[in-house]
Amino acid sequence: MRRLLLALPLALLPLAVAHAHDDHDDHAHGSLGAHEHGVARVNAVLDGTTLELELESPAMNLLGFEHAAVSAADKATVATVRKQLEQPLSLFALGNAAGCTETDQDLDSPLFDDAPAKDDDADDDEHDHAHSEIHAHYQFTCSEPANLTQLDLSPLFKAFPATQKIQLQLIGPSGQHGVTATAATPTTKF
């Protein structure tokens, strides 16, 4: 299943290229897969009873900053956001009828490291943390996957209001498609 999720971006590349071309008019210097504040990516794959969700976001969208947490306030913010990300059923509205339970998760970000950032070269360190991202991968088992008819991202938008849009790529029983979700239009059909 992990290979299927990893193949998702390649399977949807034609949609992403078309979308990037459309966005080019709006963002003169934007590029496919570029780190853009306010924009996150979610990949979703439903295969049988297994649902995998992957969230990729600039740390700015979730934390409000992208530097290593040094102050007590920054460390508290990182801990709070990590705790939120550890509760995926409160971030992704899957609907109770599908009976989805979390079976695995993996959270990854250099900002989650407890070790202080190395200070070998201040310019390099500053550049490395200038565009920090947060990646979260979740796996669920759904007892009634036929009842998983939509993915609602409204709880994610409410938890992290700096996220203005989410590039959503889905593979499910009805095929594959990509959409852009916003707080005003947070739901898409599987």
Give the ordered list of helices and strands.
HHEEHHEHEEHEEE
Gyration radius (Cα, Å) is 17 Å
Q: How many beta-strand runs?
A: 8
**Count, helices:** 6
- Major sheet size, sense and barrel closure: 6 strands, mixed
Structural class: alpha+beta
The separation of the N and C termini measures 17 Å
Uncertain parts:
9-32, 115-129
Share of helix, binned: 25-40%
List key phrases describing it.
190 residues; alpha+beta; 6-stranded mixed β-sheet; 31% helix; 31% strand
Would you give an account of this structure?
The protein is an alpha+beta fold and 190 residues long. It has one domain (2-21, 44-189). The protein has helices at residues 2-11, 13-26, 59-63, 72-85, 122-130, 154-159; strands at residues 39-47, 50-58, 100-108, 133-142, 150-152, 165-172, 175-182, 187-189. A six-stranded mixed sheet has the order 3-4-2-1-6-7. Strands 5-8 form a two-stranded antiparallel ribbon. It is globular. It starts with a helix and ends with a strand. Mean pLDDT is 82; it is low at 9-32 and 115-129.
Task: Set out the fold topology.
Layout: H1 2-11, H2 13-26, E1 39-47, E2 50-58, H3 59-63, H4 72-85, E3 100-108, H5 122-130, E4 133-142, E5 150-152, H6 154-159, E6 165-172, E7 175-182, E8 187-189
Parallel strand pairs: 1-6
Antiparallel strand pairs: 1-2, 2-4, 3-4, 5-8, 6-7
Give a brief outline of the structure.
31% of the residues lie in helices and 31% in strands. The chain is α+β, with helices and mostly antiparallel strands.
